[in-house]
Amino acid sequence: MTAPLLEVRGLKTVFHALDGAWPAVDGVDLVVRRGEVLGLVGESGSGKSVTGFSLVQLIDAPGEVIAGDVLFNGEDLRLASGERLRSLRGDRIAMIFQDPLMTLNPVLSIGEQMCEAILEHRDCSRQDALNAAAKALSRVGISSPETRLKQFPHEFSGGMRQRVAIATALLNEPDLIIADEPTTALDVTIQSQILYEVQKLSRESGTAILWITHDLAVVAELADRVAVMYAGRIVETGPVDDILDHPLHPYTLGLLNSSAATINPGERLKQIDGAAPRIDSRPSGCPFRPRCERVLPSCAEEDPMPQIRGERIFRCHNPVPHGEAS
Ligand SMILES: Nc1ncnc2c1ncn2[C@@H]1O[C@H](COP(=O)(O)OP(=O)(O)OP(=O)(O)O)[C@@H](O)[C@H]1O
């Protein structure tokens, strides 16, 4: 088994409000191994993005990371200086967002900003940086890269802009990419192309990816392993095929039954009843219990601890038995 590249233990991030400090991320444990794609999946508001930003210490007030270890290559990023974090971000760890304009500067040409991203972390000539940028654009399927480098972000379509953002993220061959819903805004064909290319690139360069998404179809297509998030914690983790074949947590089963991508032709989609709780009104015990079809009296009394079954970890008092995953 490959050594973990990223190991997160007990990560807790709160948002301070007048009436208290409410946990958006509530004791998250995660492992990302070298070169793998880990899909972090869950409904809106489950805490996926806040987890991504907490990992790289990019949480601003009123948010605050208040507990946990974030070990990247063995180094605890929670203890790293601002300077050290800046040098890791964009070099060993890159981020891609749903809106590529969060990473692309609208007033600089693509070539200028890609060069800058290289020269900030590498000692090489501007011409070498430009050559590397052109190569990176070709790798994500952008033709005539030399011409494209002279253009500005607004001269690219949404899909092309996202490819540029991905090419920029890959420039310094990072060990880890944190991708937060980067294909959600794109049409399905472009989404598939980008997923395929990112998977290929990660395999070629050994880059691990934490892919944040609410879409199980993306996870099924791209990920090696999956972590399912609900109400600020990871409720189930395991290899993607095992989770899709036999979810153990009723929430994972609910997500599968409500995704067009994972049900059989002719079957009906079934949404999970109710809505995810707000961070300031989470129920005691298991936070999923008001929506759970397998709820037991003990679920109100005791928050389930993580249980390990082979490569699977889940938090549930009444997991889905084999053969009932539909
Ligand atoms: N700046 C903020 N101030 C207060 N609460 C916040 C802030 N940002 C996020 N939250 C809270 O943290 C919770 C988790 O948000 P997060 O964006 O991580 O969810 P998510 O799973 O990524 O959802 P989505 O898919 O909609 O982005 C949300 O319920 C939200 O209320």
TrEMBL record:
Keywords: ATP-binding, Cell membrane, Membrane, Nucleotide-binding, Transport. GO terms for biological process: peptide transport; transmembrane transport. Transmembrane segments: none annotated. It is found in: Cell inner membrane. The keyword Membrane applies. Its main location: membrane. One of its GO terms (cellular component) is plasma membrane. One of its GO terms (molecular function) is ATP hydrolysis activity. It is a peripheral membrane protein. Residues 8-256 form the ABC transporter domain. Belongs to the ABC transporter superfamily. NCBIfam families: oligo_HPY. This is ABC transporter ATP-binding protein. It comes from Microvirga alba.
